[in-house]
Structures
1.
Amino acid sequence: MTVQPLLSVIDLGISTIQDPRVLVNNVSFHINPGEAVGVVGESGSGKTLSALSILGLLPRGVGVVSGEILFNGKNLLTLKPEELRQIRGNEIAMIYQDPMTALNPVMKLGKQLLEVIASHDGIDSESDNRVRALLSEVGIPDVNRAMESYAHEFSGGMRQRIMIAMALLLSPKLLIADEPTTALDVTIQQQILALVSDARKKRDMSMLWITHDLGVVANLVNRLNVMYAGRIVESGTVEEIFRRPKHPYTAGLLSSLPTSTGTNRERLTSISGVPEKPWLVGNSCGFAARCSRVQSRCHNEIPLSVAKDDSTVACFFPIGSK
Amino acid sequence: MNFRRIMKYPGVSRTLSVLTTLFGISVFVFLVLRVIPGDSITGAFGIETGALSPQQIAELRVYYGIDQSLFMQYISWMQSFLSGKFGFAYSTGVSVATLTKSSLPVTIELAIIGTVLGVILGIAIGMFSAKKPGSTRDFAGQLFGLLALAIPGFVLSTGIVTIMANKFHYFPNGYEYMTPWENPWMNFQQMMFPGLVLGIAVAAPVMRTTRSALLETVDKDFVRTAHGKGVPNNTVQLRHILRNSLIPIVTMTGIQFGYLLGGAVIVEKIFALPGMGRQILDAIMKREYATVQSSIMIFAIMFVLINVATDIIYRKIDPRIKK
Amino acid sequence: MRNKEEKAKGALHYYLQSTSGIVGAVLVLVMIIVAICSIFGITPYDPVEQHIENILQGPSAHFWFGTDEFGRDVFSRTLEGMRRSLTVSITAVTLAATLGVPFGILAGYIGKWFDQLVTRVSDVFFAFPAILLALAIVASLGNDWYDTALAIGVVYTPIFIRVARGPVLTVKEMDYIKISRVLGFSSFRILRKHVFPNVFAPIVVQIALSLSWAILTESGLSFLGLGTQPPTPSLGLMVSEAQPLAAFAWWTLVFPSLFITIVVVGLNLVGDGLRDALDPARRSS
């Protein structure tokens, strides 16, 4: 019996509306119930846009041009606005990268939190307690003060906790996290990661975690998708990807991670060149310019995802083959 | 007791600023009217003395600081002014204070009507425009803003007078002015046309401010968060977008209100409203220098106070500013 | 580091992409041509010449904009009036900018007490209804066009002080300025190379806007009878004289009003176009 995925992104295409430039190209991935899936890529790879498109939160001037996003069988892209609104914050919730700008600066935090409940279930006598309970759970020390405070009175880590509380209020089935720890100190990062992990387990919630940092994602998600220049280049379980990366880009990312082993004198390896812009990649592999395994075929054809061992790779000459 | 520490007390810096501004204006007004040769002031006494009592003349001499050095003249004036002696109108002997007591409320009422109308109109059109930037409706909104700005108030007023008075024979401003207490309905009718003209003039900058504030806010992250939470669109518009755009709008409103108090001179004249603007204008024409000087100072004080009030209001609105 | 020529060409290119900018420029140019015609006397009739037999006639082939109550050609008078408005405004704004910009730059650059002083003094005037102050000045000076220009110029100076001061403050804080000073570059050179280019754009935009306000103020003053005296025509005065006539002689009101509106609209559009063309962020309104 196969499990029906909670969320299926199928052949998603996103581009700018005015002078059309492709930003996300044929992206497909899925998330099963209770599963945590990561999307890793550099800035410009299209990972954030893919995530935003799920809840219809793309910025002005950018739109979905192809594909489907199925959530519990319904295509989110074709829902009526009111139907989509009911899902937002309720069945699918999202947290963002910069907690300072993501919170309304002139509205009390308590009110912003209650707003989530007000927009769906409606406020009742229990609402206040629910909010306070959640603030406690995410580790806000003085809940009473927090309810009456404004966003700028808190530190980055605290604000992120509040955002997480806001997202968890209605116990969504899916949490989308767009690089929520990127802007935070390393120590705070760890706290937030732990917090999210615990919350997830408690609620048996699925999660989509976007990041550029492979290190962050290792202990957090079950499966991983690697994006480059608007496409998914490799996809598989965390173990498989870390142990046997198949796409040269993935291998490059892994080897550039600083390790705690090895001598102090080794240079950090990096991938030469700069990330390719998705709309400039024509009929070729976007990574060809920087790939050490490149051959002539790579410049003339777009590699499609093929299954190999336990993952899928979009490469003509994946690592581990000739 | 060092200077820096005193400055840190709340209100000190602002009070100092207010006082400096008022001082500056008083010096300016003083100097400007001193360009007139002193004799013409005293000469005026000679000719029109009929209306002034000896005591009034004496007060005026002190007010002007006749026969004293420039510096002492200023001091003398300041002393007079600050003790409530605003001078007298030569031709009638009426004190400027009395004149002002009846003219100021008229101007204030007109300014309030104009500001309220203008703000409502301006915000409405600003919101209308900002909904679809670059569209036809946006173009229409901006065109309105441009025309409202470019068509002079006196042109609009003359147009209204021509059409209403001459074509439709409906001109409430042709009758004697009524205060709201005397005859509310007449007062309203007399205020509505000038209020409309001023309202249109105010709407232009308010619309522009609203539009740009809204456009800037709409792209902000917290708006996205609000949508992402499932907040209904109307609520997002009001509670998140508009609320955050308020600050520049409030500031602009304050500026416009202050401006209307003095800048409505022409409108007051055309619609025969006995306000401060007309008081100053008539005084200038009749060379009633005391009236001009005092009226402008009184106006300046009000203007500065309004700026302070606006300042206080937007500190209340924006919790980010430390009190 | 693009040189000045490239930058100017680039700015021009951007300016030309804005329709409103072009429309504005065209309108303003038309009005300038109008004014020049008047200067050289290229008007159909003498603006003050009365044609008694043609009193209050509507627009016709002879009198394009009709005649007023003295039989004077409204068209010629409008041209002359526009010339006057432009003369006063350009003089006033030139005065204001010439006084205001150096003070503003100095205030921003020197800072400290000088800056405080200049700011306080200019704050006194800023947003104070220009018309009131201009009224006071004109009342004491006189009715000639240069009195009006002086009055308006003095009143607008603080705006230029503020506009010039802003960019100076921003640039002053930048690291490369501090480094330049440490390296011993003369203040003048720093001003010239780094400060001026940044100040140039806002000032040019402000000039266009101030010109439009100046025209409104000048016509307002002459409407009140405080500027040009009859029979010399001025747009504001013409509107004032049209008050009793407009009901049956609409042309006496409409044409001068139209010209004022057109030139003000044109200047505003030019200002907006300039702002878009010169602002590195290219934020279109």
2.
Amino acid sequence: MPFKEKIARRAAKEISPWQIINLGIGIPTLIPNYLPPDKPVFIHSENGILGMGPRSSPGTEDRNLIDAGGNYVTIKKGASFFDSVVSFALVRGGRLDVAFLGALEVSAKGDLANWIIPGKFSPGIGGGMELAQKAKRVIVTTMHTDRKGKPKILEVCKLPLTAKGCVDTIVTELAVMDVRPEGLVLRELAKGVDVNEVVEKTEARLIVSNPHIPRF
Amino acid sequence: MIDKQTTIERAIEAIHDGDCIMLGGFGVPGTPFMLIDGLLKKGIRDLTLIKNEANEDGMGASKLIEAGRVRKLICSHLGLNATAIAMMNRGEIEVEFYPQGILAEKIRAGGAGLLGIITDIGIDTIIKEGKQCVEVNGERAIVEPALRANVALIHAAVADPFGNLIYEKSARNFNPIMATAADVVIAEVERIVEIGALNPDAIHTPGAFVDHIVLMREITSEYGILEHHAL
């Protein structure tokens, strides 16, 4: 299984039935593929949809029904449409249970940087800051290291932040980690992965308190 | 009976060089492509645009930007428009980014006769730099001034001659908010029905906010399915 699919499959397990969730671009969009039928959720899309379904099959696209990334989507029973003010009232007002977001960098204290690399990448903010700062729970789904193999999980973020102290859980192809008051705690390891490899690829200090770490 | 229907040429008569223009839409749905083409044809320039994003390369708002008609763009992101990002990086257009829902609230405030909003979004980030900050109930917050425009161009599915509007599905987005926040509001609409034919409970924008209605003669290809976003 490709790493990104593996991350999405593990991240999907963090969801409880009937939660209101938002999926950022990239890996999070793969999560619905791994939600079992007995775990119904309401997917929120920033452009004004609650109750988004899978992408439209070829030939069934509706020109007025897209997700925030422009892809044609369907809706589920109980869905609703609303304007951009209501859409973000839902987010900032505390009605969004989980936001799954990608990351350029995450810190041990839960700081998230994912919107700008000054001078290189500056496509704007979109809904990211509000999702990161106000969702009840923020789960970062990311490859453990960047394309050059450098750690993305750092003691302190170097890039400009999206939001401070917002991340609750990090899911990578190697591990599941929680941001706790005592620091970054290793919760699960991927099958076949050695704990030392994870520690080595994590710049932040990783707390390994459980000698029998569960596998995913 | 009141009838706000007019032609595109007459509707945009009141738009001039240097104006600030709000454009509805989030991606293709809700973007007033026909009215944007009218602006292009009219040749006005030095515009400030307020829009969630700048559409994709070669479409809608991006046409105005690529033609050099836009001095400044106030938006939330340009993630799907490499041309606009390149022009921003070359200094050919000035771009102001806001968090998406904060952009919506700034416009809502403008439409509601408020001077601004107070928010903690971005309080620990670089977007706070240069902005007025205040403390509210012990919390640090940013003051974001309200946004209004000379003109708002919006797209709706159905109208009646008074200007009551109904939007469809994800084409609602910024349209009803912008419809409250400009001195002149022009709506392009896919269908016009008799006054009294719309269910008052179903109307999204009351006619009081709308100055001109322009009926679309056809749904051109720009409004259609973008193959690269289909499976």
3.
Amino acid sequence: MDPIAQSKNRLQKTNFLDQGSEDWFKVLEHCLELNPNNAAALRIKSIWFTKTGDYVNAYSLLNRAVELDPFEALVYRGWLKLYKLHDYFGALNDFEKIISITKSGTRLKFFEDIYYLMGLTRMQLAQYKEAITAFDMSIQRIYKYQTQLEDLVYILVDKAICQLELGAYEDSLGTLEQALEVNGNTPECYYQKANALIHLGKKSEAKKFYIKALKLASQGKIRFNPYKDFFNQLYIEEISEKLDAK
Amino acid sequence: MLQYYQAGTCYSGGLRKIKQHFFSNVTPELSFGDSGYLTIRFIVHEDGTITIVDILHCSKEFRPFRFNDNLVDELILCLHQLGRWNPGTVQNQPIKSMKYLTFIIQNGLVVDIVPK
């Protein structure tokens, strides 16, 4: 077997080893000895450095991977820039490249829909109208392909937050109703609904939704990821503070 | 050693509380104007106390870099002031785990903290 194929085969072994363990590193090093241009091995190795906060090493490996296999590595690099480094212009650049490479933007394994990621990035840049367009695109794709359905409710919540930022409070409430149809046990929906109602001067109605959000949050329904906080991550304390203030 | 996300290591009140603490306690270092990413890696012991393992400096272009020592010292001090963490657990038993905080710094100011 030629070294390139050997390197590719050997990389499969990392799936059965603890990420970051001595054996895991040994397998990766062997893959890269066999084929220093194994983009997947470079990308996988970079993930470990990212997960431990070593961005100099992570980035150097990832940039090499991007040169060798733009598609796979660009998605991850864009994701990294968005969530971990808050380099929003850099993330946008990578996501736009992915969309141009794949024409309509491919459906991604392991990541959120590319248009959802684009929307989140635009949102962080306070480009709310563009964010809404991207979220709408993502919603269409999720319905069309029936994948990443678990994100749907949060895409709608993020869209509603953008509408709130634009002062479109009624639109925001409409979007949150759609979100509640997707999942009626989402504290983030009730929390944002209450925020929209506050803007509309409906304080007593808002209070009911803050209470509902708090109840669901206390039941552990807040969106949670052990690795990172989401944008607009909701905290129980935040809801309590709103209730105390109103 | 397990990483924080594998063991459930966390700070009571989460990143929100961590940010509140750092944003209200770190003195702006306007005179230095450094930008980039500063990561403090530390062990969270079984009793929730911490030991700093290393500090990684990264420029905004993701190259090796060195932040101003005063800023680094202040961040370390603030980290210790946070007090005890909730240790990671395995089968309900507290364990030692690795945790890090990355400070996103623009022109000498901490503008954000990741990951959790």
